[in-house]
User: What shape does this take?
Amino acid sequence: MKTSRSRLRLGDPDGRSIVLLERIWEKKIIRGHPEMSRYLPAVLATVTDPQHIEPDPRTGRSRYYRSGIGPSRWLLVVVSFEQQPGRIIIALATRKDPARWKP
Assistant: This one.
């Protein structure tokens, strides 16, 4: 991503439009989780082809999970649908199974 205004646009399995703003990727996600810097394609794949989706504790947000593609057991991406299109606001690696995961 090149400028603070650039964004990547993608869709989730339910057909909802989602964007990743460069400023969120660089100033929030990478700053808070530098290990994620090499995993942009994995973050996008987690949203477009997740293994599991569940509601976030905060209203208007969803959690997307995919295993085996990030720096830990699971890749977790949180999308806020409090605006349209939805925005990726968090991406991080976690070892914990999703709360509602049933293998």
Summary: The mean pLDDT is 91. Strands lie at 7-11, 17-21, 52-55, 61-67, 74-80, 86-94. The first strand starts at residue 7 and ends at 11.
